[in-house]
Amino acid sequence: MTDSARIVASHGRVYIVETATGQRLSASARGKKSDFACGDLVDIQVLNGEQAVIEKVQPRQSLLYRSDQWRSKLIAANVTQIVIVVAPVPSYLDELIGRTLIAAESQDISPLILLNKCDLPEAAAARDALAYYEKLGYPLLALSAKEDASPLRERLQGHISVLVGQSGMGKSTLLNALIPEAGARVNDISTALDSGKHTTTHATLYHLDSQSDLIDSPGVQSFGLAHIKAEALPGLMPDLSPFVGQCRFHNCRHRQEPDCAMRQGVTDGAIAPSRLALLQRLQDELAQGNAW
Ligand SMILES: Nc1nc2c(ncn2[C@@H]2O[C@H](COP(=O)(O)OP(=O)(O)OP(=O)(O)O)[C@@H](O)[C@H]2O)c(=O)[nH]1
Ligand SMILES: [Zn+2]
C-alpha cells in the first residue's frame, strides 16, 4: 500500500519521513535514486513499524539546492519563506544577501532579512546598510536572539521557512530560542541514522505548530543559482528590473556598451554600484558554468 509522507530529515541517502498520522519512519529511496530533499512530500511504501521505501516525489512548490561546477545537492523543498540571518558582528557578506534574494525570487519564495544581535551598538550601521533592501520591498526584521526571538516566531506563522546565514550570525541561538528541544532532537536523528559513522550535512524540519515549520540546514550559506538563465537575472533584481529592455542594444551586457540604461541607473543613483557588480559577476559565473 502506498502512503503519503513528508521528509522531515535528510541525511545523505537516508531520510526520516513523517506520515499524516505523525508516525516517523526511516526511509531510503528505491534503487540508486536519492534526489529528495527535506520538506518533500513523497509516496512511500511502509515496510514495517520503523522502515519505509520512498517510491516517488510529489510535485514541488519550490526547490532549493547548493550547487557548484560539478554537482548540485538538494537542500529543502516546498519552502515558502527564506529567512536570511545577518548580524553586525562578525560582519556579514552583502553578497550572500544578494544571491539568496535572487534564488528566492526565482522560486517565488518570500524572503525575510533578519538582522540579529540588535543589542550591540554596531547594529545601527548595519540597519542603515540594509535599508537599501527594505526600499526594494524586502521585509527586514531587527531583533536580538539572545533577548527575545518572539518577533521572528510571528513571521514564521503559516510558512515552511528555512534559515540561511553565515557562521556566527546566530542561527543556532535563534533555532534554540524557537525550538528548545531542537538540539536534542537533531542528536537523536543523527544517532539513529549515523550509527557511529562520520556525520554528513543534513537538514531537519521542525514543527512550530500545525501550520508552521522551520527547516534548519547547518552549513547552508546561500543557494544554487546555476538553474537561472543569465538573461533572466536582472528581472529577479527589483532595482534592475525597471531598466530591462531600456538599453540601446537588446543584448547589452551592461559593461562598455553605449547608452546602457543600467549603468545610467547607477550614475543617477537609482541602482547601487554593488548591485550592478553582482549582476556582472553572476553573468560571468553562469557563462562559465560555475555559479555557486
Ligand atoms: N550579542 C548577541 N550575541 C548573539 C546573539 N545571538 C547570537 N549571539 C552570539 O553569536 C555567536 C554565534 O551564535 P550562533 O548561534 O552559534 O551562530 P550560528 O549562526 O549558529 O553559527 P554556527 O554555529 O557557526 O553556524 C555566539 O557567541 C552567540 O552567543 C544576539 O542576539 N546578541
Ligand atoms: Zn545595458
From TrEMBL:
Subcellular localization, as worded in the UniProt entry: Cytoplasm
Gene Ontology, cellular component aspect: cytoplasm
Gene3D superfamilies linked: P-loop containing nucleotide triphosphate hydrolases, Probable gtpase engc, domain 3
Domain EngC GTPase: 77-221
Residues noted as binding Zn(2+) in the record, renumbered to the chain: 247, 252, 254, 260
EC assignment: 3.6.1.-
Record's keyword terms, sorted: Cytoplasm, GTP-binding, Hydrolase, Metal-binding, Nucleotide-binding, Ribosome biogenesis, RNA-binding, rRNA-binding, Zinc
Amino-acid positions noted as binding GTP in the UniProt annotation, renumbered to this chain: 116-119, 165-173
GO terms for MF: GTP binding; GTPase activity; metal ion binding; rRNA binding
Cofactors (names): Zn(2+)
Biological process terms in GO annotation: ribosomal small subunit biogenesis
A Pfam entry, by short name: RsgA_GTPase
PROSITE patterns: ENGC_GTPASE (PS50936), G_CP (PS51721)
Family according to the record: Belongs to the TRAFAC class YlqF/YawG GTPase family. RsgA subfamily.
Subunit and interaction comment: Monomer. Associates with 30S ribosomal subunit, binds 16S rRNA.
Function: One of several proteins that assist in the late maturation steps of the functional core of the 30S ribosomal subunit. Helps release RbfA from mature subunits. May play a role in the assembly of ribosomal proteins into the subunit. Circularly permuted GTPase that catalyzes slow GTP hydrolysis, GTPase activity is stimulated by the 30S ribosomal subunit.
Protein known as: Small ribosomal subunit biogenesis GTPase RsgA
Species for this entry: Silvimonas terrae
